[in-house]
């Protein structure tokens, strides 16, 4: 999906299942992905939402198809975990790094209790993407914002669409001082059908943008 002034800024996808782990990591490798954003837990309530497609513990290693994934470090935050992964292509003997972000406070079909925590999470994702693109140096010579960010939830449309819409709108607000949530979601749905599943998720985008604008001093706090 396109982002703000960036074609193919995101790869929106459903949560990987055990039978698709190899396909998922092959896609990550082929698209030169640096950052993966997971907006669901593997299990919510009594339902399986997404497979455990990366090694969970520090030092753990799993092989998915021809991609070996090593968990180098996990940084635990209040509302999300950030895992540093090392990828090894067993066919080409190449090695790369990737960052995995898992947001922990977003119920399926619902919205986070706090827009602030999600916006802070988004900020951490964007900072890490910039850091990793900078580390590539001349190895990366296409779009300055880097390769696409993989974003997934369970089905890959509700929470995934909300996250991407917020990123687009906040980037536009920062750049030109205005935005259009309706047109943003409309364009997203032309590329990934049904992005943002519920009225509450759509309404949450507006509330989150308002909270962000107030925090940044763009609006009086009483409006």
Largest sheet: 7 strands, mixed
Count of domains: 1
| SS-based class | alpha/beta
Question: What is the average of the pLDDT values?
Answer: 94
N-to-C CA distance: 33 Å
What's the CATH H-level superfamily name? Protein tyrosine phosphatase superfamily
Question: What's the Cα radius of gyration?
Answer: 17 Å
The CATH architecture name reads: Alpha-Beta Complex
Domain Tyrosine-protein phosphatase: 1-212
Pfam families: Y_phosphatase
Protein name: protein-tyrosine-phosphatase
InterPro entries: Prot-tyrosine_phosphatase-like, Protein-Tyr_Phosphatase, PTP_cat, Tyr_Pase_AS, Tyr_Pase_cat, Tyr_Pase_dom
Structure in words:
Keywords: Hydrolase, Protein phosphatase, Receptor. Residues 119-203 form the Tyrosine specific protein phosphatases domain. One of its GO terms (molecular function) is protein tyrosine phosphatase activity. It comes from Nothobranchius furzeri (Turquoise killifish). With 223 residues, the chain is an alpha/beta fold. It has a single domain (10-215), classed as Protein-Tyrosine Phosphatase, Chain A, CATH 3.90.190.10. Helix content is 35%, strand content 22%. The chain contains 5 helices and 9 strands. It has helices at residues 21-30, 115-136, 158-176, 181-191, 199-215; strands at residues 10-13, 35-38, 43-44, 47-48, 61-64, 67-76, 80-89, 95-103, 149-152. The strands form 2 sheets. A 7-stranded mixed β-sheet has the order 1-9-2-8-7-6-5, with helices on both faces. β5 and β6 form a beta hairpin. α2 crosses α5 (199-215) and α3 (158-176) crosses α4. The longest helix is centred in the middle third of the chain and has 22 residues, at 115-136. It is globular. 35% of the residues are buried.
